[in-house]
Amino acid sequence: MRGLALLAVMLSLAPIAKAQEAPIDAWTLRKCALYAKATEDALAALGPEGLSPQFLEENRAFIASGCVGHVRICAQTAQDYAFADLLTMMTMNEGMASTFVPFGCDN
Questions:
Q1: With 0-12 CB in 10 A as exposed, 13-18 as middle and 19+ as buried, what is 85?
Q2: DSSP character at residue 102
Q3: In whole angstroms, what is the distance from residue 15 CA to residue 11 CA?
Q4: Which of 4, 29, 33, 87 has the fewest CB atoms found within 10 Å of its own CB?
Q5: DSSP secondary structure string, 7-27?
Q6: pLDDT (mean) for 88-107
Q7: Which of 88, 69, 59, 67 is nearest to 7 (CA)?
Q8: Buried b (16+ CB within 10 A) or exposed e, 35-69
Q9: DSSP H helical segments within 14-77, as ranges?
Q10: Which among 70, 80, 72, 4 has a CA at the least distance from the CA of 38?
């Protein structure tokens, strides 16, 4: 439930949809809450040491967007990769596709 509370606060701080965009459905909201909780759990398990500040900030921004932003967060350090791998596995265990997570590099 803590993940839902975190998501509610984050969503109240940042607009998530423009007037012309479709509203966010219940499953998208649920996925984002699960992702926010998984992020907390992964940080608790791995610790923040070795995670690049940009990587963490872009991940926070993805959650603040309601997990609907078209973002590609590129891991830079070994710990970034470990965090991204863990979050991908955690979200897949919750029934989300591996394409849900925002990780990838454009180069």
A1: middle
A2: -
A3: 7
A4: 4
A5: HHHHHHHS----TTSPPPPHH
A6: 89
A7: 67
A8: bbbbbeebbeeeeeeebeeebbebbeebbbbbbbe
A9: 26-46, 53-64
A10: 4
Q: Is the dihedral of CA 44, 49, 55, 60 positive or negative?
A: positive
Give the residue with greater pLDDT, 99 vs 57.
Answer: 57
Q: What is the pLDDT of residues 56-92, one digit of tens each?
A: 999 999 999 999 877 899 999 999 999 999 999 999 9
Which amino acid is residue 63, in one-letter code? I
